[in-house]
Amino acid sequence: MNQATEQLKHHLAEIGHLHRAIALLDWDQQTYMPPGGARARAEQIGYLSGLAHARFISQDTLRLLEAAEQAAADADPESDEARLLANARRDFDHAVKIPAELAAEIAEHTSHAQQIWQTARRQKDFSLFAPALDRTLDLVRRVADLLGYPSEPYDALLDEYEPGIRTADVAAIFDQLKPALVEITRERSANRTIGPSNPFSGVFPAADQHKLTLRVVEAIGYDLSRGRQDTSAHPFTTNFSRDDVRITTRFDESRPDYALYSSMHEAGHALYEQGIPQEYDNTPLGAAASMGFHESQSRMWENFVGRSRAFVEWIWPLLADTFPSSLERWTPERFHTEVNRVQPSLIRVEADEVTYNLHILLRFELEREMLNGRIHVRELPREWNERMEAYLGIVPPDDGDGVLQDIHWSAALIGYFPTYTLGNLIAAQLWHRIHTSMPHLGQQIAAGEFAPLLNWLRDHVHRFGRKYRPAELLERATGEAFSPAYLIAHLRDGAV
Ligand code: ZN
What pTM did the predictor assign? Predict the structure, then answer.
């Protein structure tokens, strides 16, 4: 890379240090900080975020970026240097369009809105949250207008999380998925009562679950010398470099499956971050290709690997050893059946692999229509319940378990939901390709040999970081353009 690019990288790395310090403050807030620290922590994070934003949209960045672009004008467009500069340019052009005052207004509003949302959810009363959501919609509409969009405001918001995909593309994908998902749900679920009920009885001590999940994430390749697992109210993955990638989980002593699968999910995210090349770390290439790609890695380990017969065969002796009395009357077959049960349920984060996507479809439709002004905020609970009935055959008893269940809208994360289903689609397409090139994958998983699968993901996905756009990366990895057919086939087959 030429000297001007090196100077730009150095400048961006300094801003990266600020972002990583913010991430560390946030990790601490969600894991160990005493509740009394909340107010000062919000100020600290707010201050550092403002500093990082101001530094990034400064004349210094522009000057260094233009110099590097000029010096690298003849670089191969496929080279790391050209791709790094293209990402830096894209990030810069987006960031400068959002005035610092608007960014601060959004940050302030969302921290307030999240508190209102928590109260409204506790009291199961959407009307308390409606004015805050109205304001959120106004703010994100302003962001969309500033960023610009090809055909509707939702395009601009979606593009922040999944570069290159349009709202119409997502709608077309769901048009294919919807009838198949409704049909598969009907076929595979035993009855249409509100589930899921807990099939387990007995106690699964948190300390034992902690040991077990650590063993599992280490077995699948999560490097604990460059990571650690803690507990938090909502499991997440964060990183402060590619050599310090942390995951969290939570333990429910009546459900051994929750922490097991959520740990595998987060470890899937962490394996991606740990697999990003050293030379990309803290540069515009040192991240996942998109949120959808990130989610494809977590879903692959959680669902495609973790719920397979082969994996249950491997983990069963460990499970039975860890919880001998609570799993006394269980068999690996029964465990496999239970963790693959399809049952319409009210809460997205508790949903099975099939119905999960219907929860996402509903949210995508509603946020798109709110943004386009076709649905008014006050109509949201009714619209929510009608669609729950139409897609899943069940209606929430109140707004707490309905329209108020997710944090996203209070955090102004509008346009984010589709990336969960895109993750499932990408995972299914990658999984199909992996199976074709690795005929012994099942036996390897059953024997606890996860390295061949991880190596495939390293070679075809992780090592490219953010060098390629999602569509390009998927095509390079699978030799095919994006197709929802693989997910439909996977869900139709049930668990294998
Ligand atoms: Zn995830």
Answer: 0.95
